[in-house]
């Protein structure tokens, strides 16, 4: 019997396009409903489920609660902040004692060349509704766990308030004083374990999916990358970052990863008999 493993990145209420979500991603609710149906349809053919969870406090370097402008007024979400803005006084941390540390962080982030610090609204705070796995998927995972007598892996990411963490595998600027910000070797090994394909879904395509899989691809051999299936209708980009999501999918395919819909995966497993997703 052909088997697979499933990695679902940040399938949380705060990213769903539903009432009450702090950072809704258009299409995310339908994405996760398809993932839930896929879990139920594949059932015992899924030998492992891994779910990453964006996990924060209400205060952190990428949150609007952290920043003030030069008039001492709070900074609006979706503002980008550069090291030059700190030097000019345009923006500053509300806690002035963090100025030097924040400047070092921004310089390190910019040296990496991939991201500029983005101020996001407070989201995915541990212990809140927004942090929870979206209900249809949570229920499907529970059914899978009960049927297999096996626990799905739930990985918390982003708990250090002084570094961003889009990737489930490491923070954007890993901190030497915090192992949780460094490469998650256990998760990477679990992603690579097993003979069947690694199915990948999650939110948002343009950010956390891209960052996680870029980090994974760097550590994968060519045959391992070819064993990855990105579920194109189970991941959506943040509004305004659509091209970034498409660019990632093109890069993934160039590295031999497959891009398929959930229905196409069901066809591979001959599991399409219960009707459309």
Characterize the structure shown.
- This protein is 35% helix and 15% strand.
- The protein is built from nine helices and ten strands.
- The strands form three sheets. A six-stranded parallel beta sheet has the order 7-2-1-8-9-10, with helices on both faces. The protein has a two-stranded antiparallel ribbon with strand order 3-5.
- Strand 1 (4-9), helix 1 and strand 2 (46-54) form a beta-alpha-beta unit.
- Helix 1 packs parallel to helix 4 (135-148) and helix 6 (205-219) runs parallel beside helix 8.
- The protein is globular and about 60 Å long.
What is the topology?
Elements: E1 4-9, H1 28-42, E2 46-54, E3 67-69, E4 80-81, H2 83-88, E5 91-93, H3 99-112, E6 117-118, H4 135-148, E7 153-157, H5 185-192, E8 198-202, H6 205-219, H7 222-225, E9 228-231, H8 242-254, E10 258-260, H9 262-268
Parallel strand pairs: 1-2, 1-8, 2-7, 8-9, 9-10
Antiparallel strand pairs: 3-5, 4-6
Helix pairs in contact: 1-4, 6-8
